[in-house]
Amino acid sequence: TKLNLKVEDRLAVLEKTKPHWKRLLEQSSDAGQEPPDPEYGGEPQGLLIQTVSCLQLLATGEADDEATSYLTTLGTRGTRVLRDYGMALLDGKTPQPLPQAAAVKPEMRQQLLKEWSSKTVGEIARDIETMAVDKLLVLNEALTHETELPPNFMAYMDQIREVTLSGVKEAGGWQALRGRKLDKATAIEIARRVSSFEGSSIISVQLHRRTPVMGWNLVVKETTSLPKGWQSENLRSMALGIGEELPKLAKRACLGTFTRGQSQVSWTWFDAPVTEPSKEAASTEVKQADEALAEAWQFMQEARGDELHSWESVLRALEQQNVEPSYLHFISISTTGIPKTE
Description:
Layout lengths: L6 H21 L15 H18 L4 H7 L3 H16 L15 H11 L4 H9 L3 H13 L5 H7 L2 E7 L5 H4 L8 H12 L6 E8 L6 E8 L6 H13 L3 H4 L2 E9 L2 E8 L12 H7 L1 H28 L7 E9 L8
Parallel strand pairs: 1-3
Antiparallel strand pairs: 2-3, 2-6, 4-5, 4-6
Helix pairs in contact: 1-2, 1-4, 2-4, 5-7, 6-8, 13-14
């Protein structure tokens, strides 16, 4: 991106607006572990990218959008480098150029993988935690583009590397997932935990892997209101379709979303994921008891077919070796607390 202004005009604007840019950089502090979706906490990353890009335009006349966006995928180290770069521009200094993915040659990627091929998964995780950003970028390029990766790296990339909690009353169970492989068994375990959540709070569980070198990041939030967005609208629509009988049939309503690359699937379920035994046996009793209940029950049973298909797709994807950006999100709410409108 380029800015077609005279040098003196650009620098004059920068000088007059410095306090505002500084405040924006401070607001975006250490946002690198937030999920990428702006509806669920990713706004600070976007703010940081836009702020640094604007500073580049004013200071140099040209912004390196690709490099700034890439750095935000490398956790807090990447965002810290980007923020320091912006602060240097504000101070009138000439900072070191931002690391460039395009500068990473195939032989660099292959050499680094060869050097690390004998490391255990634990050693890889430990060394990555202290790795400088430029080398971290090289390793990420290797994990992204090399077609034959050592098993130790494949195991590392599938692990939950970070756990972030917000408003969570019982943290121990979630913290214990750090270092676990996000596979079929772990995904089902998390879904069951979300489904059986007790209390009036809404629980949101997000797992995202923006780049393979950072592994999976788990973010758990307990809140009192549904986040804005289409996921919440889906929950409301589902509740409206079942009607006022829903609280008599289920304690919790849950929604899942899985995104990998350009593909996405979403689904709803009640009380327990469909991987648990079916409740079909209770259907006859419901029909005998109340016609309205029977209709609501039938609606829920029909939704189970879509749920089963979605679960099969998601669990199959988690068992595959894939380095694309991926995002798994569960929301659970009490059936008595689903608002009819935003």
